Structure formats: C-alpha cells, structure tokens
Amino acid sequence: MESVFDQYFYPDSICIVGASSKPKSLGYELTKSVKQYGYTGDLALVNPKADEILGFKCYPTISSIDYRIDLAIVMVPKQFVEETIKELIAKKTQAIILITAGFKETGEAGAEAEKRILQIIRDSNARLVGPNCMGIINALPSVKMNATFVAEEPKTGSMAFCSQSGAIGAAVLNSLRETDIRFGQFISVGNKADVNENDLLEYWQDCKDVSVITYYLESFVDGEKFIKYFIDDRITKPVIVLKGGRTSSGIKAASSHTGALGSSDKVVDAILTQFGIIRADDLNDMFNTAKGFEDFPTPKGNRVAVVTNAGGPAILTVDTLEKNNLALAELSPETKVKLKEIVHPEGSVNNPVDLLPGGIAEQFKAVNEILVQDENVDAVISVFVEPIMVKALPVIEGINDIKSEKPIFQVVMPLPEFWQEYRAESKTKRSLFRRPEDPAVVINNLLKFQNKKSNTGRIKSDESVNDFKLNEKPGKFLNPNEVAELCNHYKLPIVKDEIHSIQELNKREIHFPVVLKAVGEKIIHKTDLKGVVLNIKTKSDLIKTAEKMIWDFSSKNIQLDKFLIQPYLKTKFELLVGAFRDPSFGPMIMFGSGGKYVEYLDDTVMRSAYLTENDIDEMINSTKVGKIIQGVRGEESIDIKVVKSAIKNLAQMIVNHKEITEVDLNPLLVTSENKIFAVDVFPPGPKI
User: Fold this and answer.
1) Is 677 helix (H, G, I), strand (E, B) or coil?
2) Do 514 and 385 fall within a single domain?
3) 296-352 confidence digits (pLDDT tens)
4) Model pTM?
5) Is 236 among the domain residues?
6) Residue that is last in its domain, among 568, 592, 615
C-alpha cells in the first residue's frame, strides 16, 4: 500500500504554488534548485503573472493544471494560504509542504490561522509539512529532487535527516562541499502542525533506501508515541537525535522531589539512553556517526589500536577513548615483532604506534594491516598529520584499500588543498574524520546500537486486571489512608502507621520510640514546615510535641488536621523511588539517594516507567547508593530484590493510572537490620 510519504519523497510531479520570476526571492530560488539538481519528474509552476519561469510553464491557477499533482509546495503570502490549500485538496493532492511563515511562531493570531489550516487538512485525506519550513530533498538518481531554497547538490547516501529548524537545515546543506555529508532524504518540518518526527520515524523504518535516521529536534510532539515504536521493537535502524534546548528550566509546578528533578533535558537523556537511541552532542557528532553506520563495519568489542605520525593528536585520540567507554588494545607480542620491522627505531611499537613525521604511505598501510590482524584489536584509528615531505592522498588511499572485517577510522589533518584533491582523485571516497577526537565518539555510538538491550519482560499497562480505582477530583492530593490503600495494592514496602487527632493520642496505647508527622491538605513537604519529629520516647513528650506543632502551624495559618504516628527506625541509608508523568514522554520512574538532601546529593537516575529487568538493574548500578547497598568495602548487601520490586511496582502503578501525576517513596529507609521501609509516601497527585 502506497504511503502519502512516497508522494513526498518519490513524486512523479511537483507543483510550486508561488513560484517567482524575481531572482533572490524564495519562490525563484526554490524553483532554480529543483531545475539545477535535475528533478526527473514533471514540474508545474503556479503564477498568474508569468507564462514561464526558468523554462518551466506557469499556470494561472491550480485547477488549470491538467495532470495529477503528487507533491505541492506552497510559497504564497500568508493571506492566500488557506484558499490555496483548499484548491490543492480539491485537486486531490495529498502531500503538501507549506514554506510560508508567519503562523504560531509569531503569536496568537498566527496560531489561530495555523489551527484553521490544520482543520482543513484533517477534514481531508491530505498531510501537511510545515508551515515555516524550507523544503525537501531526495538525492537518489532516479528522483534527483532538491526542493529547497538552498542551491547545493547533495551527494547520494542512505541517511535520512529531519530538521525542525530551517536555519539548521540550511546550514547543513550549505556545508555539504566541506563536510562530504551524503543524503538519501532530507525534510524540514518547521512548526510541525501536522507531519512530525513520529510520522517520519515510521516511514523511514520501512523505506528501503534509508539505513540511518537522523533528527535535529527542539521538541517532541508526542514523546510517548515516539518511544512506543521502540517498545514494540518496530525500529531496527539506527536513530540519531540532536536535541536543541538542553538548558530548559524544567517541569513547572512540580511538588515532589522526583517532579522537581525531572527537568526536560534529563528526561530526554534518560529516554534516549533507555531505548538505544543515539544522542549527539552537536551536528559534527551526528553526521560523523551517520557516516560511521554507512561506511564502516561495527567493531565486535571496545579494544582500539591507534597509529599516528604525531604525538599531540594521538594523545587527544587516547584521551577521548576512555571518555567513550573504549580501551587501548594490548598488542600481542607477535604484532610488536612485525611492527619493529616497519617502524623507525625512534618510533614506538606500543599502542599508540608512532611512525614519526617521516612515516610514508607504504608504512602506514603495512602497520594498519598488521593491527587489524591482531586478535586483541577490535578497531583501528589511524591519525595522519600531513608534513611537507609526505603527501596525504597516497596515505589515505592506501589504508582505504585494506580489506578487513575490522573498521579502520582515518583522521587526516592535511594541507588545505588536500580536500579538493581527495574529492577529485580518490577511488575509494571512504569517510574521513577531521579531528582526532571524532572516531572514538563514532565507535562508542556504533557499539551502543549493537549492544541494545532486549525488550523482554517490559512493563505494559495492566488496566484489564486492575481492580483499584482512584475516584478523586483532578488536582487533589490523596489523604494518608488513600495513599496506604493504594501502596498496599501495589505491594510497596510502606511502614505501618496510624492517624490520630490529639485527643486520640492521649487515649491510644503506643509502642515507643515513634515518629510524629503533621497531616493536612496543605502540608506537603513536612520537614520544611517542621512537621516531623523523630525518636519520641514517652507519651508525655508525644503530647507536648503535638501541642507545639498545633501552635506553630496555627501561627502560620496552616490547618493541621491530624497526626501520623510511625515506629522510629534506625536508619542506615535513605533511598528514593519516585515516579512522575512527563508532559511529552508520559510515565517516568526515578531511583537514587533519598532524604531531604536529594537535590543536593545529585545521585539519582531516571527512566521511562515502561521498564525491563535490565533497565532496573542499570538504574541501581548507575548510582553510588545503588552500588553501596549491594555491598562495597565490606558493607553487607541488603536484599536487593525488595528494592527492585519497589521500583517495578511503582512503575506499574503510574503506567496503570494515567490520573497520577507524581508520587515519591522518600525516604525509602534501609534500617540497621538491612530491612527496607517507605516511611514517607508523597501523595500520588495532583492528578491531571
């Protein structure tokens, strides 16, 4: 069955509505790009004031075009956009790109205009890319479509690139002659009024001409839907994301520690890590990694050999290996014997292998051939700094000619004229790297993708068997009895407690020592309000403490309803297990060091609540407190199964109950007897 995105990327006919005869205008430059790149299909221009532009026939109206329009590119002024889209839909055009700007990015009036356009689209079978975007490319020779206003000629590759920013897309296209980036497909999505990253992820996964999927994104329209493709194992191709806006101020109005810690960038980082999506730090990393997937076999391990003719760049290479979870390979004695026959006596046959500045092409090739034959080596990084006496091209071409199942990543730091010479004369055209730090990042990303964890046993919504219902009004915090009932239902290890008025405290038999906590609708963070007193040992001290709390809260105009009594436990460690609902990615879970200093300790890790057992193990092992409670430096290990169970059950709770927005087990105490109790459960609300 044909997808509408086949009409976007493989159109037999394109219509440019708003084509212009004025050089330097967007309507002219986009038409010129389509012509110069050599589009293989039919091109119709709509301009009632011209007969032809750049040799293409102009039509006065859309309806006057006498053949089907697969892809329409709209560049008319904003006031004509709605009528233009209605005419295209009447023409039964399904794939529409709206280049025109001035919509929701400009304010309320623009947002209303965008809503009207979107409603027109949704009332039909059409799809809309944009508005406020820069167009589309398919570099395949059978299509040859550059429908952007950047007059570059992309080389054909198998990478797909979606950019939310038109400026970033344009900058990338303008740099093609310098960076040698090769495209299969490119699209700028602008405001993402309709078509977004989720649509493209699904399409590109099934597209035979795409092997690597890359994104520059400033937001995720529906993050939970995005990760659902990975949860369901539908995505088998590498996906690389460069996310702009990393310094966001975080989630607003979060009441729990978990919610407060869940700033948007931390959530994005956690999600991408969990689902094997590669996160790039910058454009250089993203496209280098894409080249890595296109041009090199994935190493079988993380042991890397380095060969160089210059000490400084080799040091930078080695420094970057450790940062990227890679190791310098221990070369075998046999390899070193072979290397000594080639390497200058003043050079080095240890790893890194140093050929000195006089190392020639034949030496570089021979050394690389020896290194890839060493069983202790999984990959080679070859660093060449071009001296006056040794030309770069023969060195690079010689190494590119080596046939090996192990990848050889070449860094070249040449004289300026090398790049033009390489593009013109190279027979191999293998990707090269310009910085000594680049290959380590690429190798790490290749291994991340190869070592993606299994989805086996992942938590899913269990509403069909869930007989526990929350009937509270939206925005309300649950009271302690409701919290206890909910936690017991999900088998969370909460400590037994009792709720009493001050009159009941006098009458009840209480086993000391105890903890006294204030209870009230507006009493959220009890410690901050001095609403928690520990280790009370007698009835008289209990009553005096309760009376003082009543007086203190009354003076602050805070209503204290009742008191919660818990047994006092001698604490060994304080943990945190929390959950919250992210506006885009949905239910999230957190684990780490707990207590009132949780923000300052900064020892927490989060993941999507759609967890596997592997995810839970990684969460525990990636925190300092997680390592401690499993036994370090003679410390007795606690029953880690109880902690895993708490994480898993809390995750199941927030996955099942979409009305819960946040909940903390904080602190989750480890006692001196190595038993585990949640002594403070932040109410699972406010609800949405």
Assistant:
1) strand
2) no
3) 999 999 999 999 999 999 999 999 999 999 999 999 999 999 999 999 999 999 999
4) 0.91
5) no
6) 568
